[in-house]
Amino acid sequence: MPIPSPRLPRRAWTAAGAAFALALSFFAAVPASGSGTAAGCQVDYTVNEWSGGYTAQVRVTNTGPALSGWRLTWTYGGDQQVTSAWNATVTQTGRSVSAVNTDWNGALADGGTADFGLQGTWRTADPVPTDFALNGVSCGGDGTSPPTTPPPTTPPPTTPPPTAECGDAAVCEDFEDQTGPVPAGDWKFTAPDCQGTGTAAVDTQIAHSGTRSLRLDGRAGYCNHAFVATTADLSTVGPVLHVRMWVRHTTALPAAHVTFVSMPDSSQGGKALRIGGQNGALQWNRESDDATLPAQSPTGVGLSRPLPTGSWQCLRFAVDTSAPGLDTWLNDEQVPGLHADGVPTQDIDQQWLSRTTPPRPTALRLGWESYGTGDDTLWFDDVVVGSSPVGC
Ligand code: CA
């Protein structure tokens, strides 16, 4: 059930987020046993937590001889569960976590650093781990007496900070500064094909936060495509582009193909990477070759989700712009059919991976596009786009 976000000035989120950030650093120069080779590491693990979830930014510094590949391991003391990661492959077995370099950040010179991030969930406790090891060598002294760190004294906030990462987000929009009925300022109406009867407006009756949201009255048919586009240039947001938005639809996703989020994609020559629906369930679609994620087989569609109507829904997605990787969450639940990785999976991303160039979204358009049947009235609010994930 969505929890209304508190009304704060947009810039206040930066300070609010900082209050919940916990940063700890571990350092040691540890001789590797038996070899006489100096080896060591420093790990900065910075947590941003909220009730039930967290993200962690991790910087590992190699203080020993150069490495051509790295594996950072640690043990969680609480019930944290990693759900996604970027710039490293992170796996968890029980409380043991392992992060392995990607193809492009494996080389670590003496003094070199690598950064990666992860997102996860927790229920009862999420203490910062203290037993980091790089390629099997402890970063915390002799591995048996980690540095003394005070326990976090700031309790998790009782409501999620939905826009805690707004500080450096490229887009962080609650539409509250829209003063008229027509989207203005950072948002422009656009009818990319030919303008028909689809309309967009600033709504003061229905909102997820505050008193304003973006309303689209979408109509079926090619000429009725109607979008409101942010003026923000997203072409440098990454390497993983994270988007969080709240959407509210009136009509269930139809059998016919529809789109309600469209992102111009420079890797497709400007054609769009799109989120919408088909066969009654959410789907991704790539305009240049009309590939869909998941495949529109009964099994594929079954691995996606319908979009509930008549209430606000939190939609999040992460688009990797440097490798095949796409993930989607509906109300913080990852949708298995809306997941692409480097391994083709029947009924999910086999067709999607026929194109190997990673997408490069450059802008965000919110609206309605349908090709046959499918009118809908829909709303958008609390939209965040940035290089770090933002929770619901
Ligand atoms: Ca609002």
- How many β-strand stretches? 25
CATH topology of the largest domain: Jelly Rolls
What would you say the CATH architecture of the largest domain is?
Sandwich
Residue share in helices? Answer: under 10%
Sheet of most strands: 8 strands, antiparallel
Oligomer: single chain
The number of distinct structural domains comes to 2
Radius of gyration: 22 Å
**Approximate strand percentage:** 35-45%
Bound molecules: calcium ion
Which CATH class of the largest domain?
Mainly Beta
Q: What's the SSE pattern?
A: HEEEEEEEEEEEEEEEEEEEEHEEEEE
How far apart are the termini? Answer: 10 Å
User: Which structural class do the helices and strands define?
Assistant: mainly beta
Mean pLDDT metric: 84
Q: Please work out how many helical segments DSSP would assign.
A: 2
pLDDT below 50 for ≥5 consecutive residues: which ranges? 1-21, 27-38, 142-163
Which word captures the global form?
A: globular
Q: How is this structure best described in words?
A:
This protein has 392 residues and is mainly β. It has two domains: 29-138, Immunoglobulin-like (Sandwich); 158-386, Sandwich (Jelly Rolls). It has two helices and 25 strands. It has helices spanning 12-19, 298-302; strands at residues 21-31, 38-50, 53-62, 71-75, 81-86, 89-93, 96-100, 113-121, 133-134, 137-138, 171-173, 187-190, 199-203, 213-218, 226-230, 240-249, 258-264, 272-278, 281-286, 291-293, 313-320, 326-330, 333-334, 365-370, 376-386. Strands 11, 13, 14, 16, 21, 22, 23 and 25 form an eight-stranded antiparallel sheet that branches. A seven-stranded antiparallel sheet has the order 12-15-24-17-18-19-20. The protein has a five-stranded antiparallel sheet with strand order 1-2-3-8-5. A hairpin with a 5-residue loop joins strand 21 (313-320) and strand 22. The longest helix is centred in the N-terminal third of the chain and has 8 residues, at 12-19. It is globular and about 65 Å long. Residues 1-21, 27-38 and 142-163 have low confidence and may be disordered. Bound molecules: calcium ion.
